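Readers of this paper often ask what the protein records in our data store actually look like. Such a record has a labelled line for the sequence and another for the backbone structure tokens. Nothing more is needed to write down the fold, since each code stands for a local backbone conformation. The record that follows is passed on verbatim for readers who wish to inspect the format.
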Amino acid sequence: MNDSVLPPFARVTPMGLELRLKVVPGASCSAMAGVLGERLKVRIAAPAEGGKANRAVLSLLETWLKGTTITLIAGQTSAEKTVCVAGRSSLSSAELAAVLHPPRKSS
């Protein structure tokens, strides 16, 4: 997968794959929540205090992208964050499907 077919929230850099996020802390559960504009929307159950939400975001992303090292590179105190997935230059179809079409809660 090359830059031209990456989703709008991702771009390849010399360090790896950068993902632009919109984080919603204090949610009822932590989950990928689709795409919002040019950002991947991530709901996090942890509160936005003392770095708890940042740690929860990294943990959720590492669960989604197994076997990767993910670093928060921008937005430490903002809902809009940028992370770097070291050594990656693409997302698989299954990884994309997990975020572009997140499971819906049944009511």
Observations:
- The chain has a mean pLDDT of 87.
- Helices lie at 52-64, 93-100.
